[in-house]
Write a sequence for this structure.
């Protein structure tokens, strides 16, 4: 990068401000914070071939971030219904009960209607949101997503979803 004229003095000014701010950071506090992240197993310490050390999110850290994103999850509702139903069907073993209950709760929070204990229905495209939840709770082998054109209690469902 070539610095010229007035830009050079701006860059020096920014660098000077950064150095002053860096000096204000209590090094001991920073060290404790980094150590806490490492001990919580939210980050891993990696060293590259040049000997530079960097912190990266661990699997647990990525899961934690995903769990925060789930609170923001919403399904967009189109202006016109495509007259298809989305079914989420699952048979999740008891040893994954916590994930099963979390999935069921999240689907209900998104507006799904429970047809049976392990079958929920929704009238709009939601494949991406369902895929996200399946990955979040590591339930891929146990969950199916289907799109169907008709169901015998459609009038009741249309009423429930105000279609």
């Amino acid at each position: 990068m070539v610095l010229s004229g007035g830009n050079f003095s701006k860059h020096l000014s920014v660098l000077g401000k950064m150095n002053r701010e860096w000096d204000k950071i209590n090094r001991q506090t920073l060290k404790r914070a980094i150590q806490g992240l490492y001990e919580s197993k939210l980050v891993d310490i990696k060293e590259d071939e040049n000997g530079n050390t960097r912190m990266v999110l661990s699997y647990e850290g990525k899961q934690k971030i995903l769990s925060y994103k789930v609170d923001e999850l919403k399904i967009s509702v189109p202006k016109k219904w495509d007259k298809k139903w989305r079914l989420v069907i699952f048979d999740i073993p008891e040893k994954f009960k916590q994930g099963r209950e979390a999935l069921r709760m999240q689907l209900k929070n998104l507006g799904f209607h429970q047809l049976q204990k392990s079958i929920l229905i929704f009238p709009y495209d939601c494949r991406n949101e369902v895929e996200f939840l399946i990955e979040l709770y590591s339930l891929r082998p146990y969950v199916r997503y289907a799109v169907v054109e008709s169901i015998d209690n459609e009038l009741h469902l249309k009423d429930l979803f105000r279609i």
